[in-house]
Every structure is written in C-alpha cells, then in structure tokens.
Amino acid sequence: MAFIHTIPEDEASTEVQEMYDKNLQAQGYIPNYAKVFSHRPQVMAAWSNLLGSIRSNMDTRRYELVTLAAARALKSSYCMLAHGSILQAKFYSTEQMNLIAQDYHTAELTPAEVAMMAFAEQVVWDATAVTQQDIEALRTHGFSDAEIFDITTTATARCFFSKTLDALGAQPDEIYLKLDEDLRQTLTIGRPISGQIQE
To answer: Which parts of the chain have pLDDT scores under 70?
Structure first.
C-alpha cells in the first residue's frame, strides 16, 4: 500500500519488470519499497549502486548498526524492521536485538559502536550541529577519516531512502509480522506494517 498508484506486474515495462524480478529472486516476494519506485526504476538502480559502493568499504555488522541508528532517528519502521531483522539473524539474539533497538547506549555494545551510532543519529537530526569535536571523538575510538566518511554516508544515504518511503506511504512488508512480537513492536516506530491492525 502507498499513497501513490504503483505499477502492477502485468502492466510493468521491461525495466520495471527487471526490478521486480530482481527483488523476487532475492527475497521471494516484491517488497512494497520496490513498488514505490516502479515509476522510476532507474532511481532504484542508482540507489542500489550508491549503497553498494558505501557498503563495500564496511563490515556487515558496522553497516547494519549505523543504518539502524539512522533509521531510528528517522522513525522509519520499514528500515528498522529490515535492518533489525538482519542484525538479529546474523549477529544477535532476539533479546539482545530488542535491547539495541530500545537503547543502544545500554545494550552492551562496544564504546566504538555506541559512538558511531550516536554520530549517525546526530547526522540525521541536525548535520549542521556536527563539530570538529564530534569527529575527534570518533577518532579517539579508532575510526580513520575514511571510516568516518563511511559512517556519515551510510547515515545520509538512509535519509534519502527512508524519507522517500515514508513520504509516499510505503508500509513495511507483511513478512515482518513473523518477527518475535516484542522485537517487532520495538522496531515498528513509525508507519505500521502492511496488514497490521492499528491499536
């Protein structure tokens, strides 16, 4: 469901169908975010290329934690659910992931991980408030300037995607209803999951 009409599969042009097929092969279904991009599949392709270039310089856990922090600041249910699910599947127990999503400061992450997530949130909230001291603080945790760039672009790229989805009313996919109930509720901080009854 979205606020704009999206292009159904049986009306899809070759370019749109290729985008749908790519998502179908990767995930087993066509996610709502792909449908929102059906009017401009070339933008989705450009986004995917940008994201790939950012991710290629980061290990998966760092990328996902920074993305989660940015999504949290953006109040993006879709991105919280997607990236929280990846972190839970690959790195953390359901209980640990719930703690991280609620308050990463007290979730037994390393000081460096807490610092990079806090910085990502700050970038989302008000990038003009970032100071040289904030950068120096990241350096004290061992981050190089190139790594600080990676953290920054991970957060800023998330702004584009999350805000696009929320502005056009794209709801998180029903597959996320299968998550542990407590974790699902913690991660659903903005728009409700598609098919979810709002209380």
So the answer is: 197-199
